[in-house]
Design brief:
With 401 residues, the chain is of the alpha+beta class. The chain has 11 helices and 14 strands. The chain has a domain at 4-122 and 252-393: Peroxisomal Thiolase, Chain A, domain 1, CATH 3.40.47.10.
């Protein structure tokens, strides 16, 4: 079997809910990420792309159900380039990369563009379809931006609690207090700001035209570098009267897109650049739906086993910070140095546009390994309804651990 490699990664800035990118359609955001990734490999003839695999958690509105194909067309790629959209909720774009890497390794493809997009600001409200015309009863519009919707009454109640309540249960289970969650959130903002100031994201993030003709969003909109534990302590709990989860220690609703170009080793001459990293291992795991925040623990362990390495060899971890409490629970379970995790900031600061977050993790991880020269890294993400995904990257030029 062939190996699959990361050749390039790019993303849009992540905008706040109803913020600078709220006026940009998700298919346009996706097209921007497609164009940004391909701009990094100018020698590549776009017609050589065998497939585009794109993540999207919504699909109910302007995503147009197969937003991948829309992005290909809007980005001006040849109409001969096919595209498919996958939906594994928060893990959609990491799943897209996993699907593409398998296609490359089995020889079904040589070059695959992956990524994902979400506009949570523009996610529509939906109505259940009536069983007959002009029903006499009232119907309720449901937001598709986040969480359970139109729940099947056969589902056990403990499975369908809100994402926040599920993580309050996780805080109870592992005894992770509010102050520790707030401190983790402050760290996320500080590290994100430091990474931007140091120029780390300049090679990864492409500015996007926002509302007006001259309005451009160049940086992630949700960063709050002046955050303090004392300041976050004043926020009210969001899900329980006496709870520990607030708007300050959870990821925000966001808009954005990410892209990652994958290819075989033999495709390097056509792509025109050397690969950044090899996809060395993959892991998927599921458990009870309300425990989704803890699922990355075993997903990452399985990815490491697939790669044939242990945590002792890992130098960088990109873990999606859906909630500070679940990220802390995972790091504690892995028994790793917390400084390895999200050294360039995480979703609490950068944002979490569901379908795009996995691609952000993978692109950031590849660039972290390139910057440090370290060999092994892990990207992991929790997924609503009790799932998680993880990928191990090997820096092809890395000499460290």
């Amino acid at each position: 079997m062939s190996a699959s490699y990361v050749y390039a990664a790019a993303r849009t800035p992540f905008g706040r809910f109803s913020g600078a990118l709220a006026g940009v359609r998700p298919d346009d955001l996706a097209a921007a990420a497609v164009s940004a990734a391909l701009a990094k490999v100018p020698a590549l003839d776009p017609s050589a792309i065998d497939d585009v695999v794109w993540g999207n958690a919504n699909g109910a509105g302007e995503d147009n159900r197969n937003v991948a194909r829309m992005a290909v067309l809007l980005a001006g790629l040849p109409t001969s380039v096919p595209a498919t959209t996958v939906n594994r909720l928060c893990g959609s774009s990491l799943d897209a990369a996993i699907v593409a890497s398998r296609a490359i390794e089995t020889g079904d493809a040589e070059i695959v563009l992956t990524g994902g997009v979400e506009s949570m600001s523009r996610a529509p409200w939906v109505l259940p379809k009536p069983d007959r015309a002009y029903p006499a009863r009232d119907v309720t519009a449901v937001s598709t931006a986040l969480g359970w919707r139109l729940v099947n009454p056969r589902m056990p109640k403990e499975w369908t609690v809100s994402l926040g309540e599920a993580n309050e249960q996780l805080a109870d289970r592992f005894g992770i207090p509010r102050q520790r969650q707030d401190a983790f959130a402050v760290r996320s903002h500080e590290l994100a700001d430091q990474a931007w100031e140091a120029g780390f994201y300049e090679d990864l993030v492409v500015p996007v035209a926002a509302g007006g003709k001259d309005d451009v969003l160049a940086r992630d909109e949700g960063m709050r570098p002046g955050s303090t534990v004392e300041g976050l302590a004043g926020l009210k709990p969001s899900f329980r009267f006496d709870g520990s989860i607030t708007a300050g220690n959870a990821s925000p609703l966001s808009d954005g897109a990410s892209a990652v170009l994958l290819g075989s080793g033999a495709a390097a001459s056509r792509i025109g650049v050397a690969p950044l990293a090899r996809i060395a291992g993959r892991g998927v795991f599921a458990l009870d739906p309300q425990d989704f925040g803890f699922a990355p623990v075993e997903a990452a362990n399985r990815a490491l086993k697939s790669a044939g390495i242990t945590w002792d060899e890992v130098a960088a971890v990109e873990l999606n910070e859906a909630f500070a409490v679940q990220a802390l629970a995972c790091v504690d379970a892995w028994r790793i140095d917390p400084d390895l995790v999200n050294a360039k900031g995480g979703a609490i600061a950068l944002g979490h546009p569901l379908g795009a977050s996995g691609g952000r993790l993978l692109g950031t991880l590849a660039h972290r390994l390139k910057e440090s020269g370290d060999r092994w890294g892990v990207a992991a993400i929790c997924i609503g309804v009790g799932q998680a995904l993880a990928v191990v990257l090997e820096n092809v030029a890395g000499e460290g651990r």
